[in-house]
Design goal:
The complex is a heterodimer. Chain A is mostly beta strands. Helices cover 0% and strands 50% of the residues of chain A. Classes of the chains: A mainly beta, B mainly beta.
C-alpha cells in the first residue's frame, strides 16, 4: 500500500513569490492534516480536513496560507506571497476517520530567500 | 505557550544500554499520547502510544510510561541499537479537539556501537 506522498520534496523561492505544496494521502483516509516544523522546533499543527471539509484551521498562521482538498482526495497548501518566516518543513499526514494514528509523508522543505 | 515539552534536545547512549526519553505536558485535557520516530529527510513514523487510562504500554523493546499526576511520560528503549538513532517526538491528543496532534520539540537519540 502506498504511503502519504508529498510534492515537491524541496522548494526554494524568493520572498513575495507563490508556492503550492501538494499532499496525496493514503487511499481511503478521510482525515488529512498539515503540519509545519520550523528551524528544528516542534512540529506545529496547521489544519485538519475531514474529507473535503475543513474541520479545524486554528493553526494556520495568517491569510497568506490557503489549503484546499478537492473532492476529498489530495490536498494543496498555497503560500502567497511567501515571507522569510514561512521557511520550514511542511508535513502532511492522514488517518482513517476514527483512528488516532496518523501516517506522515516525507515532508516538503520550503526555503524562502 | 508550549503544551508538550521535551527538555533534552539530544541523548547519547551506548549500544545495548537503556535509552530513556522524557516528555512533560501541561494540559490535563490530553487523553492520548504517542511517540513518533523520525529519520533525516523522512516523515515521522508512529512508534507506540498510550491512553490516559493506562500507566504503561509495552511493545517489544519499547515501553512508554505515563505519570498523570506529574504530567510526565517517558519512552524506554531496551536494549538500544544503532538503528534506533533518530529524532523522537512526543505528541498528545487534546480531548474533544478533533484529531490534531500537539508535538514536543523532539529529542535526537544517538546510539553508539
Amino acid at each position: 500500500e502506498a504511503g502519504v506522498t508529498q510534492f515537491p520534496s524541496h522548494s526554494v523561492i524568493e520572498k513575495g513569490q507563490t508556492v503550492t505544496l501538494r499532499c496525496d494521502p493514503i487511499s481511503g483516509h478521510d482525515n488529512l492534516y498539515w503540519y509545519r516544523r520550523v528551524m528544528g522546533k516542534e512540529i506545529k499543527f496547521l489544519l485538519h480536513f475531514v474529507k473535503e471539509s475543513k474541520q479545524d484551521e486554528s493553526g494556520m498562521p495568517n491569510n497568506r496560507f490557503l489549503a484546499e482538498r478537492t473532492g476529498g482526495t489530495y490536498s494543496t497548501l498555497k503560500v502567497q506571497p511567501a515571507e522569510l518566516e514561512d521557511s520550514g518543513v511542511y508535513f502532511c499526514a492522514s488517518s482513517p476517520l476514527l483512528d488516532n494514528e496518523q501516517f506522515f509523508g516525507p515532508g516538503t522543505r520550503l526555503t524562502v530567500l | 505557550d508550549q503544551q508538550v515539552k521535551q527538555n533534552s534536545p539530544s541523548l547519547s547512549v551506548q549500544e545495548g544500554r537503556i535509552s530513556i526519553l522524557n516528555c512533560d505536558y501541561t494540559n490535563s485535557m490530553f487523553d492520548y499520547f504517542l511517540w513518533y520516530k523520525k529519520y533525516p529527510a523522512e516523515g515521522p513514523t508512529f512508534l507506540i502510544s498510550i491512553s490516559s487510562i493506562k500507566d504503561k504500554n509495552e511493545d517489544g523493546r519499547f515501553t512508554v510510561f505515563l505519570n498523570k499526576s506529574a504530567k510526565h511520560l517517558s519512552l524506554h528503549i531496551v536494549p538500544s541499537q544503532p538503528g534506533d538513532s533518530a529524532v523522537y517526538f512526543c505528541a498528545a491528543f487534546p480531548y474533544n479537539q478533533g484529531g490534531k496532534l500537539i508535538f514536543g520539540q523532539g529529542t535526537e537519540l544517538s546510539v553508539k556501537p
